[in-house]
Amino acid sequence: MSLTMRIIFFGMIGIIGGLLAWPLAEVLISFQVDFPSLLIFGIAIGGVVGLVVGGCFGMNEGILSHSSSKLKAGLIMGIIIGAIGGAVGVLTGLQVGLFMGTSFFLAPVSFKTVGYPIARALGWAAFGIFIGVVEGIRSKSFAKIKNGIIGGFIGGFLGGIVFEYSLKLFVPDVLYARLLGFMVLGLFIGIFYGFVENKLARASFYLLNGRAKGKEYLLNQRQFTIGRDEQADMSLSDYRQVSQKHASLHSKKDKVIIKDKNSKAGTYVNDKKISESALKDGDVIRVGEAQFLFRKK
């Protein structure tokens, strides 16, 4: 999968997450009168939406790498972090709205048309941050967490703006406005997460042969592992002569260094067997029967 398709994939997963969250939110809305307060009702809605959207986003890496262990771990992590993020997002929106209403002396009309939607959108931005950091926390990667914070905030805020104004523009069909809003929210979080991940990556690896030919991997962390192991950052289980833990990559400032992990078949850079080597843009790396092109960003 190319990097462009990867971004599109994230966006599609976001749409699916929003689509799945919508009926559950509508069920809760139908029981709104049974909640003891609007605050608890809002937290419940946010938690349910976050649970579903977070779970969907958490499965991204497992689906892309065909790894059942990554999928399960990501799903569980996404459900937990997403549910927390949904509740935090609601509380953030309420607090920002209260602050804007009391500190900026907005007129009732301007607050309703501008202040309230922006406050709510900032709440969705907080929600987006939690969704964005799911994969970074699962993989214990600070770089991925940073990408998730930036992409999740931008996507959550812009998607939140569309969400809130769709509710105002389609008042007679508010049911479908919420459906549109949830789908756009998930789409924006996914696309902007993927866009930021791509832009901030140190390098990429383009597979040149085999079943996964054309697939690209991003190097957006200081340590990156290659091997047959499902937990490897680049899992090459479909390629022969690849060891469980075949090689690793380390980023040091502007250098990317590849190191063989005592593999049976060895690691090659431009057909030269290496134990450790600094990579240059355009180098061809061979790990077992897998060959890929190194592209420096």
Report on this model:
The protein starts with a helix and ends with a strand. It is of the alpha+beta class and 297 residues long. It is built from 8 helices and 11 strands. Strand 7 and strand 8 form a beta hairpin. It has helices at residues 3-30, 38-58, 60-65, 68-103, 108-132, 134-139, 142-169, 174-200, and strands spanning 203-207, 216-219, 223-227, 234-235, 247-252, 255-260, 267-269, 272-274, 276-278, 284-287, 290-296. Helix 2 runs parallel beside helix 5 (108-132). 44% of the residues are buried. Strands 2-1-11-10-7-8 form a 6-stranded antiparallel beta sheet, with no helix packed on it. It has a 5-stranded mixed beta sheet with strand order 4-3-5-6-9, with no helix packed on it.
Write the layout of secondary structure elements.
Elements (H helix, E strand, L loop, with lengths): L2 H28 L7 H21 L1 H6 L2 H36 L4 H25 L1 H6 L2 H28 L4 H27 L2 E5 L8 E4 L3 E5 L6 E2 L11 E6 L2 E6 L6 E3 L2 E3 L1 E3 L5 E4 L2 E7 L1
Parallel strand pairs: 3-4
Antiparallel strand pairs: 1-2, 1-11, 3-5, 5-6, 6-9, 7-8, 7-10, 10-11
Helix pairs in contact: 1-2, 1-8, 2-4, 2-5, 4-5, 5-7, 5-8, 7-8
Spell out the key features of this protein.
six-stranded antiparallel β-sheet; five-stranded mixed β-sheet; single chain; alpha+beta
Order of helices and strands: HHHHHHHHEEEEEEEEEEE
Beta-strand level of the residues, as a percent range? 15-25%
Secondary structure tally, helices:
8
Shape: elongated
- Total beta strand runs: 11
Stretches where pLDDT is under 50 for at least 5 consecutive residues are none
Rg, Å, rounded: 22 Å
User: What topology, given as strand order, has the largest sheet?
Assistant: 2-1-11-10-7-8
What's the overall average pLDDT, rounded? 89
Oligomeric composition of the shown chains: single chain
